[in-house]
Specification:
Strand content: 5-15%
Radius of gyration: 18 Å
Helix content: 25-40%
Shape: globular
Structural class: alpha/beta
C-alpha cells in the first residue's frame, strides 16, 4: 500500500479478515449489536507506538479545533497505542491532551519494549520487528501466528521478575485522565497469549480500563488479567481491527502505520481487506494516514519520546487540513 497519501479510499478487492475465535474464557462483546445501536459512526484508532499515539491525539485535536469533533463517535475501537488514545479522549479533550504532549518533558523508558514501551534507541524496536517477521514467516495463517506470538511472549516472560507488570500498569494508568470506562461504546482489543484467541474488552467485561489498555499495548511481554495473559491487540487482525466496526454506517480509520502489514496478503488481514469488507456490507469508510512529511517518525522511530511533540504537531496540521473533506462524511 502507498502510505504517502493522508486521505484515500481503498479499492483493492479482498475478502473478509479472519473472525474472532470462540474460546469461552475470552471476554466477549456483541460488536454487531453495538454498531447498530450506536447510530452508525465508528472511530477506529490504530496502533503505532508512542509517536503513533501522539499523532492520533494531534489529528483529533486538529479536527476538533477546526470544528469537527470525532471523539463523539458512537463506537470507538482502540488497538495498542490506539487503545491508549481511545481511553484518553474518554476523559479529556483532544486539545488538552495535545497541550500535555507539547509541554511534557520526554522521559526515558525503563520497561520492556512493546507497542508503547521502549527506550530512545531504535535497536530494541528493530530487534522486535525482526522477531515478529520470523514468527510470521514460520506461521501457516493468522491464527497460527497469534499462537506463536503468544508462546514467544510467554517464553520471554521467564527472564523477567513480576515487578514489570506492576510498573507497566502504573505507567499506563498515569496516562489516562480517567480510570472509568466511558458510557459511549468503546472496544479495546487484545490476544490471549496462551491460546492465541482474540479478545475484545468493553465496560461490561468486568475488567478495569487501565488493565484493558495495558493488555492491548503488551507487544513484548504478556500482561496478566486474572487467570489469563494477553498480548498486543495488533496481533488480532492487523494494527487497526476495523472489522469490529461492522454494521456502522460511517467508519473513520486513523492509522499511524498507514495500513501497512507484515502479514502475507493471502491471510486477508490487511486494512484493505477490512475496509473492502465493511464497504461490501454498506458502510462508508474513510482512512487517514500520516502524510509523507511525517512518515519518518513512525516504524523504527515509533518509540522515540523526543518525536512525540513533532508527531502530534504533524497530526494537528493534518487534521485541520482535512476537516473540509471529512465534515460531510462525519456529520
Amino acid at each position: 500500500m502507498n502510505t504517502t497519501s493522508s486521505f484515500r479510499r481503498h479499492s483493492i478487492p479482498t475478502t473478509a479478515s479472519e473472525p474472532p475465535g470462540s474460546d469461552q474464557d475470552q471476554p466477549r462483546v456483541d460488536t454487531a449489536k453495538h454498531a447498530h445501536a450506536a447510530g452508525g459512526r465508528a472511530l477506529v484508532l490504530g496502533g503505532g507506538g508512542s509517536t503513533g499515539n501522539a499523532w492520533l491525539i494531534g489529528i483529533m485535536a486538529g479536527l476538533h479545533d477546526a470544528g469537527l469533533d470525532v471523539t463523539t463517535a458512537d463506537l470507538t475501537i482502540g488497538t495498542s497505542a490506539g487503545s491508549t488514545a481511545a481511553a484518553q479522549i474518554a476523559g479529556a479533550t483532544p486539545s488538552g491532551l495535545l497541550a500535555a504532549i507539547l509541554t511534557a518533558v520526554p522521559q526515558k523508558r525503563t520497561v520492556p519494549v512493546g507497542s508503547d514501551r521502549g527506550v530512545v534507541s531504535t535497536k530494541p524496536v528493530v530487534d522486535h520487528l525482526e522477531r515478529i517477521k520470523k514468527i510470521i514467516a514460520s506461521s501457516e495463517d493468522a491464527a497460527d501466528m497469534r499462537r506463536r506470538m503468544g508462546a514467544a511472549a510467554l517464553d520471554m516472560e521467564a527472564a523477567w521478575d513480576g515487578s514489570w507488570q506492576t510498573q507497566w500498569r502504573a505507567t499506563v494508568a498515569s496516562r489516562l485522565p480517567s480510570q472509568d470506562w466511558p458510557q459511549r461504546t468503546m472496544l479495546i482489543t487484545a490476544v490471549n497469549a496462551r491460546t492465541g484467541e482474540p479478545a475484545v474488552f468493553d465496560r461490561h467485561s468486568g475488567i478495569g480500563l487501565a488493565d484493558a489498555v495495558a493488555a492491548s499495548c503488551a507487544s513484548g511481554l504478556p500482561y496478566r488479567i486474572g487467570d489469563n495473559k494477553y498480548i498486543d491487540g495488533g496481533y488480532r487482525s492487523n494494527a487497526e481491527n476495523a472489522d469490529l466496526a461492522a454494521g456502522c454506517g460511517r467508519v473513520l480509520v486513523l492509522s499511524p502505520f498507514g495500513g501497512r502489514s507484515l502479514a502475507p496478503l493471502g491471510w486477508r488481514v490487511q486494512l484493505e481487506a477490512q475496509v473492502d469488507e465493511l464497504r461490501a456490507h454498506g458502510s462508508r469508510v474513510e482512512t487517514i494516514f500520516p502524510d509523507s512529511g511525517s512518515e519518518h517518525m513512525f516504524g523504527t522511530n515509533a518509540m522515540d519520546p523526543s518525536l512525540r511533540p513533532p508527531a502530534a504537531r504533524a497530526g494537528y496540521e493534518q487534521g485541520k487540513a482535512l476537516v473540509g473533506q471529512l465534515a460531510e462524511f462525519w456529520r
